[in-house]
Design a protein that fits this description.
This protein is an alpha/beta fold. It has two domains: about 10-230 and about 305-319, Spore Coat Polysaccharide Biosynthesis Protein SpsA, Chain A, CATH 3.90.550.10; about 230-300. It has eleven helices and eight strands. It has helices at about 25-35, 55-65, 80-90, 110-120, 135-150, 170-175, 185-190, 215-230, 230-260, 270-300, 315-319; strands spanning about 10-15, 40-45, 70-75, 95, 125-130, 160-170, 195-200, 310. Strands 7-5-6-4-1-2-3-8 form an eight-stranded mixed sheet, sandwiched between helices. Helix 2 (about 55-65) links the parallel strand 2 (about 40-45) and strand 3. Helix 5 (about 135-150) runs parallel beside helix 8 and helix 9 (about 230-260) runs antiparallel to helix 10 (about 270-300). The longest helix has about 35 residues, at about 270-300. The radius of gyration is 26 Å and the shape is elongated. The model has no long low-confidence stretch (mean pLDDT about 90). The structure holds uridine-5'-diphosphate and magnesium ion. Magnesium ion (MG) binds near residues 99, 101 and 103.
């Protein structure tokens, strides 16, 4: 084909962890939408060590449809690793990241492609403007998290932002140049800069299967984000240290003055125990914060691979 007429290729990266129930719906919907796209697509599924029939399903999809590719991990490495693997292996001029559960509506794709082609943007992000169908505690803590992280981090996080976004090759390469082990993509997408247009939509509940995120998993993820994109907790530790020194000096002065004035200061063992416990607690807490940063540094220095591939569609074809 003449190069001038060649259509752009869009890589659609889909992290999948036990999504055998959702993938058929997703595939049907993408197939429908792709007809109205002014570009070719490749569907790059990343099987993140699923224990259900996901891989089998992907094998048969890849056999039937030339546009389908897949990468299967040797075990569950997490969605962050799956997104990184997808971006690394995407061949497209543009790349999109989408969940397999149709919570990221494929119907937005044509508009996103149009924006990147016609307007002066390198990325189109999406955010949900409500959290219908989510437990209220989760919503409460999510809001709290965004308030805190935006106070203490230079990188600004957009509330409700999803990982669903379309990027130009330029931005994909920029994202890939950050090869850190402790990945937090929402921050990385912001950190690399470039102009991003945000599309908004109301939350959609997953089409089939179950969410892979428990409250505890989300909580740990948010702490990881804070450690990855802010050093404020370390500064807070120093602040506590300074504050307690100051309090101690004031206490010493008060005791000396009282002694000189002839007032007996030697009383109050109960309050003393409380103070010792409190200061001891604060010390352990701040050492814990230090430990968080140290452990992340430790993991980074090991330079372990972010993911390991067990199989791709190319292996499948050989058989
Ligand atoms: N996912 C993944 N690895 C994991 C957890 C999730 O690849 O360890 C994928 C999952 O298959 C889905 C996407 O990440 O396509 C979002 O997960 P989920 O829908 O469970 O999260 P939620 O939408 O509830 O936040
Ligand atoms: Mg989901």
């Amino acid at each position: 084909m003449d190069k001038m007429n060649k259509k752009d290729l869009i890589s659609i990266i889909v992290p999948c962890y036990n999504e055998e129930e959702a993938i058929p719906f997703f595939y049907r919907e993408i197939d429908r939408v792709s007809a109205s796209l002014d570009a070719d697509i490749e569907l790059l599924f990343v099987d993140d060590g699923s224990s259900d029939g996901t891989l089998k399903l992907l094998r048969s999809l890849a056999e039937k449809d030339k546009r389908v590719r897949y990468i299967s991990f040797s075990r569950n490495f997490g969605k962050e690793a799956a997104m990184y693997a997808g971006l690394q292996n995407a061949a497209g001029d543009y790349a999109a990241i989408m969940d397999a559960d149709l919570q990221d509506p494929p119907a937005l794709l044509p508009e996103m492609v149009r924006i990147l082609k016609e307007e002066d943007y390198d990325s189109v992000g999406t955010r949900r403007i409500n959290r219908k169908g989510e437990p209220p505690v989760r919503t409460f803590f999510a809001k709290l998290f965004y308030r805190i992280i935006n106070k203490i981090s230079k990188v600004q996080f957009v509330p409700g932002a999803r990982d669903f976004r379309l990027m130009t090759r330029r931005m994909v390469d920029a994202v890939l140049s950050l090869s850190e082990y402790n990945r937090f993509s929402k921050g990385i997408f912001q950190w690399v800069g470039f102009k991003t247009k945000w599309l908004e939509y109301k939350n959609i509940e997953r089409v089939a299967g179950k969410t892979k995120w428990s409250f505890w998993k989300l909580f740990k993820y948010s702490l990881e984000c804070i450690v990855a994109f802010s050093t404020a907790p370390l500064a807070i530790s120093s602040f506590f240290g300074f504050l307690f020194c100051l309090l101690a000096v004031i206490g010493i002065i008060v005791i000396i003055v009282r002694q000189l004035a002839g007032v007996d200061s030697a009383y109050g063992w109960a309050s003393e125990v409380c103070i010792i416990l409190f200061v001891g607690g604060v010390q352990l807490f701040t050492i814990g914060i230090l430990g968080q940063y140290l452990s992340k540094t430790y993991l980074e220095t090991k330079k372990r691979p972010i993911y390991l591939i067990a199989e791709t569609e190319k292996d499948n074809k050989k058989e």
